[in-house]
Amino acid sequence: MKFKELKVGDNNIELYALVIDCKTKQTVNQTPYYGLILSDGEDQADARIWTVSLVNNLKDKAIVPGEVYKFTVKVNDYAGKNQIIIGQVEDVDPNYVDLSSFYKSAPISEEQLRTEIKSFIKMIKNPILQKIVVELIGKNADKYFRHQAAITMHHNYRCGLAYHVYSMLKLAKQAVSNYPQLNADLLYSGILIHDIGKTIEITDNKTPSYSLEGNLLGHIVIGLTMLSEVIKQFGFEKTDEAIALQHMIAAHHGELEYGSPKEPMILEALALYLFDLTDSKLAGTCEIVGKTEKGTYTTQIPTLGRKTLYVPKIEE
Amino acid sequence: MKFKELKVGDNNIELYALVIDCKTKQTVNQTPYYGLILSDGEDQADARIWTVSLVNNLKDKAIVPGEVYKFTVKVNDYAGKNQIIIGQVEDVDPNYVDLSSFYKSAPISEEQLRTEIKSFIKMIKNPILQKIVVELIGKNADKYFRHQAAITMHHNYRCGLAYHVYSMLKLAKQAVSNYPQLNADLLYSGILIHDIGKTIEITDNKTPSYSLEGNLLGHIVIGLTMLSEVIKQFGFEKTDEAIALQHMIAAHHGELEYGSPKEPMILEALALYLFDLTDSKLAGTCEIVGKTEKGTYTTQIPTLGRKTLYVPKIEE
Amino acid sequence: MKFKELKVGDNNIELYALVIDCKTKQTVNQTPYYGLILSDGEDQADARIWTVSLVNNLKDKAIVPGEVYKFTVKVNDYAGKNQIIIGQVEDVDPNYVDLSSFYKSAPISEEQLRTEIKSFIKMIKNPILQKIVVELIGKNADKYFRHQAAITMHHNYRCGLAYHVYSMLKLAKQAVSNYPQLNADLLYSGILIHDIGKTIEITDNKTPSYSLEGNLLGHIVIGLTMLSEVIKQFGFEKTDEAIALQHMIAAHHGELEYGSPKEPMILEALALYLFDLTDSKLAGTCEIVGKTEKGTYTTQIPTLGRKTLYVPKIEE
Amino acid sequence: MKFKELKVGDNNIELYALVIDCKTKQTVNQTPYYGLILSDGEDQADARIWTVSLVNNLKDKAIVPGEVYKFTVKVNDYAGKNQIIIGQVEDVDPNYVDLSSFYKSAPISEEQLRTEIKSFIKMIKNPILQKIVVELIGKNADKYFRHQAAITMHHNYRCGLAYHVYSMLKLAKQAVSNYPQLNADLLYSGILIHDIGKTIEITDNKTPSYSLEGNLLGHIVIGLTMLSEVIKQFGFEKTDEAIALQHMIAAHHGELEYGSPKEPMILEALALYLFDLTDSKLAGTCEIVGKTEKGTYTTQIPTLGRKTLYVPKIEE
Amino acid sequence: MKFKELKVGDNNIELYALVIDCKTKQTVNQTPYYGLILSDGEDQADARIWTVSLVNNLKDKAIVPGEVYKFTVKVNDYAGKNQIIIGQVEDVDPNYVDLSSFYKSAPISEEQLRTEIKSFIKMIKNPILQKIVVELIGKNADKYFRHQAAITMHHNYRCGLAYHVYSMLKLAKQAVSNYPQLNADLLYSGILIHDIGKTIEITDNKTPSYSLEGNLLGHIVIGLTMLSEVIKQFGFEKTDEAIALQHMIAAHHGELEYGSPKEPMILEALALYLFDLTDSKLAGTCEIVGKTEKGTYTTQIPTLGRKTLYVPKIEE
Amino acid sequence: MKFKELKVGDNNIELYALVIDCKTKQTVNQTPYYGLILSDGEDQADARIWTVSLVNNLKDKAIVPGEVYKFTVKVNDYAGKNQIIIGQVEDVDPNYVDLSSFYKSAPISEEQLRTEIKSFIKMIKNPILQKIVVELIGKNADKYFRHQAAITMHHNYRCGLAYHVYSMLKLAKQAVSNYPQLNADLLYSGILIHDIGKTIEITDNKTPSYSLEGNLLGHIVIGLTMLSEVIKQFGFEKTDEAIALQHMIAAHHGELEYGSPKEPMILEALALYLFDLTDSKLAGTCEIVGKTEKGTYTTQIPTLGRKTLYVPKIEE
After folding, report:
1. Rounded alpha-carbon distances, angstroms, from residue F73 to A163, D222, F1, F15, F19
2. Where are the beta strands (DSSP E) in chain A?
3. Which of E23, E212, E217 should we substitute to test contact with C (largest number of C Cβ atoms within 10 Å)?
4. Class of residue C270 by CB neighbours under 10 A (exposed 0-12, middle 13-18, buried 19+)
């Protein structure tokens, strides 16, 4: 059952939900309770557990954010909105319940992403570039194809990192046709590895957060370290290919004030920056616009500095 | 004969060249002479006319920038470089000499551009959008398909404006496939007319410059005026289509400090801005990179704030 | 009766007040109530309606922000401040109650403003400028003379737009005497129409807000569209007068980052910008300073980026 | 005789001119000569002295910038422009020649300025303010009424400082009528003394330059020091009048990045800043616009960051 | 007894604490109570007084922030944290209780600071500089050696101003050895007096705040006024020493946007700015880092724009 | 013989000088000549070779910038300044002439720098930090102790890099005593290696320039790569010591817009940034101030954005 199907007065409803957040709170007369934010895979909703001892029967003796539970609830009216009151909570056996629908994921499957991205890697004819890219993605493949690309911004879902790379590659392919001066091998290689550092910057938990390296170094510096190790392993240190790839990771935020220690100084680094900018702005915005009724304004959009857009009533 | 074929000691060489600039100067002992900048369609070169009376036999009794002449020259060495000394100058009969090679033009012909752009216009199914676009481009077609897009920056050549639009449309087509939330009709319409004001901002001479309206109003305000006239003519004033198109012209520079009176507030305006940015940065840069030897640095690139890029030695 | 006359313990007091805001809220034990912000024309005050069914006898079955009602109230002490508890609410018959005192208005009447502004229009001797100004103001006269100039900033009251224009005209008249190089006809014309787009940017309700055109285009673009229609109607398209007026509307925010697509490029556009800046900063600030006791600090001032000023104790 | 009356071929012409600059130069074959910039009080012109020994008969054995001399000249053509060749140079007896026309001065005389400014001082009724202003201007009166207000920017001529103050006072008088909350006594007092530090910042020579205090402290800090001395002399240290005046000098550049150590925090300081901004932008611009033909563009305008304006062809 | 020793269930505990803040609040059923923030000299804690009449027996009939009281308390559990409930409050006799531990103070005593700073003053051999420094510090000695240097930023504790000067002098001494071109006399003199205006900018109460002069003029302008009085008193007005010291106070914030009316234009002013920056950033940060467990992140650091640092687990 | 000893009329003077620059030029009548910039180790001077065949007897058949030659010269007067005319030029045998005086070097010798820096390395007690620092400096020792720290800014001379590190270490030692919360081991380690990437960023020639890695990656990214190789070699990858050192190199420019991909997030990184800033500003400035007469202004100072300082006449 989805949250949008609930209505005031419902009672003894069983539903499965992912816990986004669970905090101990206290009523004005100082009785403790739990305030939760739940997700049914589509929408989020607030809920309350008035009886804190309810959680004692759980495996962990506590409600763990990032896990899915089975809840038995009733629905009250609170200031004109539904309020979910939880009467019972039980652990879920992943063998019997399909959890995938609770975790937001990329629009296409991990398998498809692996296939599509590999077909781009095969297009790289320059042997130095290909070796570096194959090795760097290969040794980090599990994380590379499953990681999310951000915590709160664009592509913040499973396989978000790989999906972001795939979208950029498609824009780049069109650009290679528009602008024949672009070196396709170099451009594809740069796009494929530009965010490799995110596999370490963001932890791989159910509720991802920034690692210590993520906070102190950031994914550009981490990615440069990962790349330089592969370059050394193959003995490619002084090649233009190696230096160009290092430059492309370093410069992919486009401007110093966005955290790039160098601004783009080769054509393909400039193109990489422009496609990264385009995809990061459009992907996050499209997701929110897609949920907004025509003729109304969207909610605040994180990748646009919390701006609000209008969705015009225009038929195609 | 091209400039790059000239060598010191050549004499009585006949060549056709476009005059970029022609200024009266004076030697240290105060003898007047002409200093010229010539173009053979590929390269530019300095030249001098020591005998100022040479020009008297010309139709205009003067050398007019923007025109092609037949010159008879010799080549001196000046500080290690070729110096072209003009001994004779004659008018050129356009019936006997093909002038097109002297004027820089878009990579594809005006006819092809008309065909390609019209095929995009046909894809617009929304009747309001289509009517506006057809009318606005139709009544300005001659200028629209022949104008250059800028004076010193990107696409500063014949048909540059239409070629810029065409490149953006191709990027947009890929994006419509990547991001299904984009309204293709609106996005294509916006791209097709976003720079329409440039047909008035920049004069249509052989040596284009900014018009009075161009200086005082700029192509965004001029384009908005041209658009609002067509909107009124059809009675589309309060439609979302009309307001969205006006917004897209107003917002296409993306940020207030780049001269847009509004920042993008609809998804397709955001996409338009990103493709305009991408094409304007890449097109101008590619042109210069294409003329640069691998393993060396380019000349200063106007669209990149006069930055210099490195062109790596990497085989595809 | 005014809010400042109320004191704790008052009961069964009848008072007329304008509703600024009315929201449904809920007590900790989840009983709904209404939280209101009222205005007596001078001050604002919070109030509560504990019995939500009270509103059922109203014409609209609801309390509508922007309307004046008759309230019967008592006054409690809440944390050392007056708390107004509403016991009864009734519709008001505008035929029997003078509502004008509840709506903030310009310091002089609409009639005076019409007279003063028309006398400036008569000073314009240049026939092109005069025709444009007369037509543009004439066809929008009702809104032009009644609109407020902003929603939260300066001149946010009835006739605020016209009063802002009038204040600028007086500054300009002194300037024309200081600086004889100023073209008075052009300067007055520009001032008279510079904010004409606000008649469409801001809706003309009792509680004004931004229209769709206001949000997507802004008053500069809207004003330019209104002006270009009048220019076309008279056939003045290529005159310096028409282009100068268009430029003055476009440039009146003075800098690109304040939303002007062009910075002032004629002397009178520069002067217009400076008087607009001066009046917008001083008018809003003076209003707040006028309500502040000498020797103390003001509340935060919206037009000054929420800064606080000191009002010195200095006798004149 | 004025420079604009000279024509090529003139010989043995006697003219009086102010020397703006005089530098020793050298021809290509290393013969020394003098390159001069002369002013006839209206225009400037370049001139040359080929015989350097010519200056030996002068009182100072040298040509001193800032002085007026009698020159005997001929006029050559140099690259299409007049070139003044000086054949003889003589000292000028100020008893026989009226030098005033060579030095640029305010549009009204020093006497008029003294009268006008004193009438404003008399309007100040607050005794503390009046005492401070009378004393501060009185003890610096000679410099105050004769100094120029800047070296290269606006009001860079004799009596420029006092004329700038007078223009601001007239704007302020209109503003006091527009905005009754303004304390006229405080505003006039602040305007009268805001630039008092310029009497020390800029040296009082025929060719003014920045003094050491000017370079290291600037006119705001110097003015504050001059004011605090007068405040102490009268024992007004802790009065709101004294603190407000100090604040007004400190804040009159309006923003920290323009060199004010405090931004305006009282209403009259805000008004002072706005009138200073307005007069400094308009006065310098008007002077250049007044010399520009209608329908053309001005030269670069120093107070507008070297921007160029258009002067429209519009009759009043 | 210190706050960290309290545990839930404690009752009738007597403790001495400094009141940071005391506000009247109200429970949901509108019973008033006091909410306090207390300090035991090391940590801060919230506390409540449910019986407002408790304060009637105090000398001031009220709890005054900045004073130390004796409290009798019990400790409840509130949402898992200690909640201090005050049952009794009494005035404290300073003759019997040592209050110094409740007020945060510099790491070394006022006496030591006086000794250390005087030894630096004695190093100044230039008689003009020494006279000025001795007089300026001498006439303000009480405030100079006891004032805090800021309200919320760095060195916001008793003797903070003098301790800040002392830390800078030690850095400067090392720098004089590194860079022999530094004039030690001038550098030490400038450091000694650079913040003298803070003795007037910040009031000398137990709970310091900004004075009117502090708000309207700031410590740079106040310090310049204090300095110029001493310069005049000795007749040092035109000396390089006096002008250099004035410049050093004016320029010590380093950049216009940080409130300096002039940027450093002498070497020692540049050095002064750099040591001021270094000490202000490091002192405040070190204090917070010193309280943070290794391997964790600090709280937000005021002098770093509220950034959070990581304290690595690294042994020395 | 030094340049300052030369006077007009000198002939057949022999002198040794380092060639900074040598360009082929041409007189107005198109005769080629060489224009040189020479250095005698203290000052620079322009010189000319009119007879271009003079260079044919040299070993390289050309004058090579960065080399010292023996010149035979005469001295002409050119526009009031000495002009050196070279009559003869010969190669120099380094076995017979001491060339060291022609190359600018650090104030103390390479040997002293090695000793001083090693004594700081020995103070590092933490074994991980010490191993990393010893290895990183050890394997690059020749470049580390001889490189210059910049091309045009501060420390642009032999051993400039090591001297910059040494100056910072001395400031840091004082700071460790001022601020006991600083981890001295970490701070010294960070300072010792922060600029290690400059050994590759800047080429090690007699006339240093930026390498390809220097242009495309910069010394921060290069240094990070060098460091991560050593970290991997010892297996220190996940230690706080390794991550902290990586962070310190990444953050040492202090702000994103100065090229640091991360701003300081640990205390010692903040301190490192502040000492780097202090030494880079003071060292370059002191050098120029040291050559400037008291009571005059300096030339433009590169590290201060080309600002000019005043050197006051103040005795110590």
Report:
1. 72, 53, 12, 8, 14
2. 13-26, 32-39, 44-49, 68-78, 81-90, 296-297, 310-311
3. E212
4. buried
Q: Which residue of C has its CA nearest to B258?
A: C256
Is B78 in the F-facing interface, judged by CB distances under 8 Å?
yes
Chain-chain contact of A30 with E310 (C-beta, under 8 angstroms): no
Does B50 reach chain F within 8 Å, measured CB to CB?
no
User: Which of A28, A76, A80 lies nearest to residue C28, judging by beta carbons?
Assistant: A28
CA of E79 vs chain A CAs: smallest distance (Å): 6
Task: Determine the distance in angstroms separating the CA of D80 from the nearest CA of chain B, rounded to an integer.
Answer: 9
What are the helix (H) ranges across chain C?
110-123, 127-138, 141-146, 160-178, 184-193, 198-201, 212-216, 218-234, 240-251, 267-289
Please tell me the predicted confidence (pLDDT) of residue F45.
87
CA dihedral E292, E295, E298, E304 (to 10 degrees): 120
How many Cβ atoms are within 10 Å of D225's Cβ, its own excluded? 23
pLDDT in tens, D248-269: 999 999 999 999 999 999 999 9
Output phi, psi for F213, to 5 deg. Answer: -60, -40
Q: What's the alpha-carbon Rg for chain A, to the nearest Å?
A: 23
User: Which of F245, F278, F311, F313 is the mutation pick for testing E, counting most E CBs within 10 A?
Assistant: F278
Q: How far is E254 from chain A (nearest CA, A)?
A: 22
Q: What span, in angstroms and rounded, lies between the C-alpha atoms of C195 and C227?
A: 11
Identify whether the C-beta of residue F227 lies closer than 8 Å to the C-beta of residue F245.
yes
Whole-angstrom CA distances from C140 to C134, C203, F26 are 10, 14, 71
In which band, very low, low, confident or very high, does the pLDDT at D29 lie, cut at 50, 70 and 90?
A: low
Nearest to D261 among E220, E244, E266 (CB): E220
By three-state DSSP, how is residue C36 classified?
strand
For all residues of chain A together, what is the average pLDDT?
91
- Would you mind telling me the total number of residues written for chain C in this entry? 316
Q: What is the DSSP string of F266-297?
A: SHHHHHHHHHHHHHHHHHHHHHHHTTS-TTEE
- Considering only CA atoms, which of A252, A274, A276, A275 is closest in space to residue A264? A252
Q: What integer is the mean pLDDT of B124-145?
A: 97
Put simply, the answer to whether A310 touches C216 (Cβ < 8 Å) is yes
Q: Give residue for tokens 């409130």.
A: E259
Q: Any CB–CB contact under 8 A between B233 and chain C?
A: no
In whole angstroms, give the CA distance from residue C67 to residue C64: 6
- Output the pLDDT for position D80: 66
Q: Which of B212, B220, B232 sits opposite C261 (nearest CB)?
A: B220
On whether the CB atoms of residues E64 and E19 are closer than 8 A, the answer is: yes
- In B113-152, the residues whose Cβ lies within 8 Å of chain F are none
pTM summary value: 0.88
Q: Are C249 and C260 in contact (CB under 8 A)?
A: no
With CA atoms as reference, report the closest residue to E108 among E70, E38, E144, E157.
Answer: E157
Q: What is the ipTM of this complex?
A: 0.85
When the pLDDT of each residue in chain C is averaged and rounded to a whole number, the result is 91
Token pair for A291: 């949920």
Please write the tens of the pLDDT for every residue from D61-114: 889 888 889 999 999 877 667 889 999 999 988 787 777 778 788 899 999 999
* ∠ CA F142-F145-F146, rounded to 5°: 80
CA angle C223, C225, C227 (to 5 degrees): 70
Q: How far apart are CA F69 and CA F71, in angstroms?
A: 6
Amino acid letter, residue C73? V
Chains A and C contact (Cβ–Cβ under 8 Å for 3 or more pairs): yes
- Residues of chain B found within 8 Å of residue F213, distances taken between Cβ atoms: none
Do chains C and B have 3 or more beta-carbon pairs under 8 angstroms? yes
Flag if E26 and C310 touch (Cβ within 8 Å).
no
